[in-house]
Design goal:
Blueprint: H1 4-30, E1 44-49, H2 55-69, H3 71-75, E2 79-83, H4 89-94, H5 101-108, E3 112-115, H6 133-140, E4 145-152, E5 157-164, H7 168-171, E6 177-178, E7 184-185, H8 192-208, E8 213-218, H9 226-241, E9 247-252, H10 253-259, E10 271-274, H11 276-290, E11 297-301, E12 306-310, H12 316-320, H13 330-342, H14 346-362, H15 377-388, H16 393-400
Parallel strand pairs: 1-2, 1-3, 3-12, 5-10, 8-9, 8-10
Antiparallel strand pairs: 4-5, 4-11, 6-7, 11-12
Bound molecules: 3-isopropylmalic acid (IPM) and magnesium ion (MG).
3-isopropylmalic acid binds next to helix 6.
Length: about 400
């Protein structure tokens, strides 16, 4: 057993290594490339990665919807699909890597990725405690913005969360150390560049969509240094957007979780920008209000690549209990819609969104419960696709939402 000062020296070395890596990352952010222009890409290559657990089932349904929407572009060779199978927990464990090298190389050859949920082990599980594939992919492809829209049209709720995706408590979440037998330390990091790029994206979204309020969520009264930096940056960027009539406010994460379930106040929030862990927590709560985490999709956007996924995990329990085919594919289909919008097909994306809202929140002829008493993902997707193709879709959606967004 090492003595205390030996343990401290070892921890210092570990910490020094992390600091140097993070300073290098800051330099890389300063020299980051410009945004990819999908219109210039011929073809646009879409990776389809089913993941594992219920990911396999729900990805098939999302892929069907994508294939249907992109029929003509696929036939004309403007869009190409590439199926990448290696993100299963078995394959990741075999290579003892969050993303095996060959899989990462394949992903990097594509432009956008539709990714099914992937199992994230925790100490004590049946799997070795490897890092989350999501977190690794966000870091490796520098997917810094996790954009999560949540809509409850009947209540006038239309939120768009901009979750910082490469820093905060997640950045070094699997690099913490047990300094001694009694002391464990994790790390959290926030950078000037990392906060600026996500906050700016939130403000740009507000500006481009005529939205007049951007809310930052922190716990800067307690987590003073890292959240403090995020909070300062939100105020700094906000000054540039005052000229567009956009106001910025800040809420602490605890009261914000309460406000989201306050029917009198929640519709007032519109664009919400927040550090990684708070974004993780708050978006599950928001998705539950929309109809469950199974209904929400998530876009992980970087300048070179973008990845689209469900906001939830791979639900291994559902698979063990033989319920995978009853898993709700809506989250992955939402993700597919976000992918389409991102690569330049806003009308197709809007049709999917409208059809999802009609099927999940209004008509509800068939609903998915995750169990035998609900529809299978496949039957639900057939139902959804019949609405996507229905010429009455827009007018039905407008009737249900009494006039639209
Ligand atoms: C999410 C998920 C992931 C996260 C997990 C699976 C690592 O909960 O995308 O919100 O915590 O980011
Ligand atoms: Mg989450």
């Amino acid at each position: 057993m090492m003595n205390a000062s030996g343990s401290v020296e070892k921890a210092k070395e570990h910490f020094a290594k992390i600091l140097n890596e993070q300073l290098a990352r800051v330099e890389a952010m300063k020299n980051a490339p410009g945004w990819v222009d999908y219109k210039q890409l011929k073809p646009v290559v879409i990776a389809i990665c089913p993941g594992d657990g219920i990911g396999v089932e729900i990805s098939v349904q999302a892929r069907r919807v994508l294939e249907h929407m992109l029929k003509d572009d696929l036939a004309a060779g403007k869009i190409v699909f590439r199926y990448i199978e290696g993100l299963t927990i078995e394959n990741r464990v075999k290579h003892k890597k969050a993303i095996p090298d060959d899989v990462l190389a394949e992903l990097k050859k594509c432009h956008v990725i539709l990714k099914g949920p992937t199992t994230t082990p925790q100490a004590g599980d049946k799997w070795p405690n490897i890092e989350s594939a999501n977190v690794a992919m966000r870091r490796e492809l520098d997917l810094f913005a996790n954009v999560r829209p949540v809509k409850i049209p009947a209540e006038g709720v239309d939120w768009c969360f901009f979750r910082e995706n490469t820093e905060g408590a997640y950045i070094l979440g699997s690099r913490g150390i047990d300094v001694t037998e009694d002391l464990s330390i994790d790390f959290t990091a926030v950078t000037e560049q990392g906060s600026e790029r996500i906050i700016r994206m939130a403000f740009e979204y507000a500006k481009n969509n005529g939205i007049k309020r951007v809310t930052a969520v922190t716990k800067a009264n307690v987590v003073k240094t890292t959240d403090g930096r995020f909070s300062r940056m939100a105020k700094k960027v906000a000054r540039e957007y005052e000229q567009y009539g956009i106001v910025q406010d800040e809420w602490y994460i605890d009261i914000m979780t309460a406000k989201l379930i306050d029917p009198a106040r929640r519709r007032d929030f519109q664009v919400i920008v927040l550090p990684n862990l708070y974004g993780d927590i708050l978006t599950d709560e928001a998705a539950q209000l929309q109809g469950g985490v199974g209904t929400a999709g998530s876009a992980n956007i970087g300048k070179t690549w973008a990845m689209f996924e469900a906001i939830h995990g791979s639900a291994p329990r559902m698979v063990d209990e033989g319920r995978a085919k009853y898993a709700d594919p809506s989250s992955m289909i939402r993700a597919a819609a976000m992918l389409l919008r991102h690569i330049g097909f806003p009308d197709k994306a809007a049709r999917i969104d409208m059809a999802l809202e009609v099927c999940v929140q209004f008509e509800r002829k068939m609903s998915v419960s995750g169990r035998q008493d609900g529809a299978t993902g496949q039957d639900f997707t057939d139902y959804l696709m019949s609405w996507i193709d229905n010429p009455e879709l827009r007018s039905a959606w407008e009737k249900y939402t009494s006039g639209g967004r």
